[in-house]
Structure formats: structure tokens, C-alpha cells
Design brief:
It contains two helices and 14 strands. The protein is mainly β. It has a twelve-stranded antiparallel beta barrel. The N and C termini lie far apart (43 Å).
């Protein structure tokens, strides 16, 4: 599996690959990300297609020195590990290959760069972008409607979008559900990892605001 996961972004015309080329499609892909409000162990987040078939799942480890999540494929194989870097003034998250947290397996960093009341904006830097002067991707989130847009580099080129799905059923079941559209040729596992990080950073910021 490690041979399928690159150490840096692979760019070909019409493709953005960060985790693996096998997670891209030649057409727009709509997925559903569901998070239960009260969940322990496996299945904190599930990513399914529009027919309910599992694509990815996210496992959270509670007993760790820093928040850590593992994004698995549908068969339970770890694809990437997401870890909040402790003592980070900029709310930095690091994403590694498989279930590793070794620096040599780092794929990308996610850093919050704005702290407005109704927005969470993130810079995404690939591991090869060590000076971090210009982001490789931008994530712009809106707290008000729980939406976000992912851009390629510091540009207006959209590669994915997310919108919260509000329904009485979700409210009664204590679930947060998001509809995600991933553009053709864009790595769906990468987008899923970004949205999990955004969700975690937004939760921390919201809790701090309430406190």
C-alpha cells in the first residue's frame, strides 16, 4: 500500500493527487460525510457514496498525547494519519502515510491562518513545501452554514466543496451530515482528510468561544 501513496502532490493535466491516484475519478463525485455526535472508537466519521456504500472511515484515538485520527479505506486499511501538533500556536495539523506519525512519512501540513468569528481558513502545505511561503491549497470555511471550499494553491480554482445537510432525521439521531462534491481528477481521500481536520479545528475554536 505504501507504494500507492506519494510523498508529494502529483500533478498532471486535470489531476490533483496527494494520497493516491486510485481515489480520483474522471467525473465529479458526490459523497456524504457523517459524524455521530456521540461516538467512541471506530466509525467516528464515515464517508459514503450517494447510495450509502462505504468509501472511507475515520477512527479517533482518545488516549494519545495529541488528537489523532486515522483515515481508512472501505476494507479498514489505514491510508493516512491526522495528528494535531502539540504546542502549536497556529493550530497546525500534520498528515502522514498510513498509520505512521514519523516525520519521514509526512505528506502535508494544515495550518489555520485566520480566526474570524464566522470563518475558518486553512493553508495546506505539502511536505516538500518547507518554506511555507505560498500554500499548495486553501480551505475557506464558513461557520454560519457549515460549508467550505477547497482551492488549488493561492488561486480561485475550486477543486472541492462541502455543505452541511440539515434535516430533522439528522437532528434526532444526533448526526452531523455533509454533502461533498469532488471535482474530476481530484484525490477524494485527500479532500476527506482536509474536511476532518477542518471539522476538528472548527470544534476547538467553537468550544473556546463558548468558554
Amino acid at each position: 500500500m505504501s507504494g500507492l501513496i506519494p510523498t508529494q502532490m502529483q500533478m498532471t493535466p486535470g489531476q490533483v493527487v496527494v494520497v493516491g491516484r486510485q481515489f480520483t475519478e474522471a467525473y465529479p463525485v458526490t459523497t456524504v460525510i457523517t459524524k455521530k455526535a456521540f461516538s467512541l472508537g471506530n466509525g467516528e466519521f464515515n464517508v459514503t457514496d450517494i447510495n450509502g456504500n462505504l468509501i472511507f472511515s475515520v477512527e479517533r484515538y482518545f488516549f494519545s498525547t495529541a488528537a489523532r485520527h486515522v483515515l481508512n479505506d472501505a476494507s479498514g486499511i489505514p491510508l493516512v494519519t491526522l495528528r494535531r501538533k502539540i504546542f502549536s500556536a497556529h493550530r497546525r495539523w500534520q498528515v502522514f502515510k498510513g498509520d505512521s506519525t514519523d516525520s519521514k512519512d509526512l505528506i502535508f501540513n494544515v495550518v489555520r491562518f485566520s480566526r474570524f468569528q464566522y470563518k475558518t481558513n486553512l493553508n495546506v502545505f505539502l511536505a516538500s513545501n518547507t518554506d511555507e511561503n505560498v500554500p499548495d491549497f486553501l480551505v475557506k470555511g464558513e461557520h454560519r452554514d457549515a460549508s467550505c471550499t477547497v482551492y488549488l494553491g493561492n488561486s480561485s480554482a475550486v477543486i472541492a466543496q462541502m455543505q452541511k445537510q440539515r434535516s430533522l432525521k439528522n437532528l434526532l439521531l444526533h448526526k452531523d451530515t455533509y454533502g461533498v462534491t469532488v471535482n474530476p481528477g481530484v484525490d477524494g481521500a485527500f479532500i476527506a482528510a482536509l474536511i476532518v481536520v477542518l471539522r476538528e479545528i472548527t470544534n476547538v475554536h467553537s468550544s473556546a468561544a463558548v468558554a
